[in-house]
Design goal:
231 residues; 9 helices; five-stranded mixed β-sheet; Nucleotidyltransferase, domain 5
Length: 231
């Protein structure tokens, strides 16, 4: 199953008050395994940057002025998301901003199914902090690079949190490996790789296997062997 873990950074808290998106980050997951397929864009909000917002994500109006507007990245974002379910920390916030930006362009709002990891965390750990930092600490996920909020970094951290909230990395028994899917290499397991244990069959095991094969009527391998011999 394909899912998109998504995060945004903004100029404020309320799109109805004229606040805009300034960064979008998204990570693709296939069957709860992050792939290398990611989306990240800084966005020119076409307005000033309040000091309190800059203190959160560190993005200035000067820096963002050289980046594309939401109108210029919207189609690429929608293509990346497709119809995949979304995984978002405090989904009402990010979806509210995304749908407000889409409405400005005359686009329909996102109808994708979504998972709100804040709601999951609060149900699972009632009374405990449910911030992304708190969940990283709970699950021993390294977030030391998070000096500021950043949409792509936060999406990457959230992907790890979501795996833990969904049952942990043991859910795939560490067998995901580096599997190529639609041109994207899946992330390898983080645990040590152990070689397969050699096993030499005993005489008793070989005899039991031979006796089992004798009970099979007209086995396919005998037919194939006869055909090869005749050829």
């Amino acid at each position: 199953m394909r899912e998109i873990v998504l995060d945004t950074e903004t100029t404020g808290l309320d799109p109805a008050s004229g606040h805009r998106i300034v960064e979008i980050g998204a990570v693709e997951m296939i069957n709860l395994v992050p792939t290398t397929n990611r989306f990240q864009k800084y966005v020119n909000p076409e307005r000033d940057m309040p000091d309190e917002a800059r203190a959160v994500h560190g993005l200035s109006s000067e820096f963002l002025s050289s980046h594309p507007t939401f109108a210029e990245v919207a189609s690429e974002l929608l293509e990346f998301i497709g119809d995949a379910p979304l995984v978002i920390h405090n989904a009402a916030f990010d979806l509210g901003f995304l749908n407000a930006e889409l409405a400005r362009l005359g686009f329909p709002k996102l109808e994708n199914k979504f998972v709100d990891t804040v709601s999951i965390a609060r149900r699972r750990y009632p009374g405990a902090p449910a911030s992304l930092d708190a969940l990283c600490k709970r699950f021993e996920i390294d977030n030391s690079a998070r000096n500021f909020h950043g949409a792509l970094l936060d999406a990457q951290l959230l992907a790890e949190v979501y795996i833990e909230l969904s049952g942990g990395k043991q859910a795939d028994l560490g067998l995901a490996g580096s599997v190529s899917l639609e041109g994207q290499e899946m992330a390898p397991p983080t645990g040590p790789l152990r070689p397969a244990r050699p096993h030499a069959a005993t005489a008793a095991e070989l005899a039991a296997h031979a006796a089992f094969l004798e009970k099979i009527k007209d086995p396919l391998w005998q037919k194939l062997a006869s055909e090869e011999a005749a050829a």
